[in-house]
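mind reviewing both lines:
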Amino acid sequence: MEPHDIPVSTSPEAPAASGASEAAPQAEAPPESPEALREALAAKTQEAERLQGRLLRLHAEFENYKKRMVREKAEFLKFAHEGLILEFLPILDNLERALASARAEAGSTPLLEGLEMIARLFRSVLEKAGVKPMEARGQPFDPGYHQAVAQVESSDQDANLVVEEIQKGYLIEGRVLRPAMVKVSRAVSSVSGDGTGGGGAQA
C-alpha cells in the first residue's frame, strides 16, 4: 500500500503562541494619599447631604400639596351649593312676608300653621347646609355685611346703626352669602328750619 501525502499548510501566518494573545499586564495606579481620600470622602458626603436635603424638601412640598388639595376640595364641597341656595332665598323671603301679613290679618289658622311648618322646614334645610340668617338690626353698619338702601335721622340712637332690615342677610359657614339690605341711622341735623342755625339771630 502506497503512503498518502500529508497536506501541509501553505498559509503564511503561523498560529500565534499561547502567550501572545494575552494582553500585557497594565501598570497599577499608585495608591491615593490619605489627604486625597479624605477630600474625596468629604465631597461625597457633602453631595449626599445636599441630595438628602433636596429629597426632604421635595417630600415636605408634596405633603403640603396634598394638604392643600384636601383643604381646597373640602372648601369646594362646602360652597358648591352656594349658587343653588341663593336661588332659593327669595322664595323664603316671599314666604316669610306672606306669613307676616297673614298673621296680622287673620291670626292663627290651620293654613297659616301649615305654612309656618313649611317655613321651619325650609330654615332647617338651610341650617344643615351651613346657612344662617344675620342679626342686623341694632348692629353698627358694616359694608361687608350690610347693604344700605336708605338713611334715617334718629335722635334717640347713635349714628350709623342699622335701624331697619329691609331684606334679611345670610351667612354660609361664617362667610357672607347675601348681605342684609338695611336702613341706617344718622344724626339729626342741627340746622333749624329757617336756616339760621340753632343759635338764632342776635339783636
In short: The chain has a mean pLDDT of 81. DSSP finds three helices and six strands in the chain. The domain at 131-191 is CATH 2.30.22.10 (Nucleotide Exchange Factor Grpe; Chain A, domain 2).
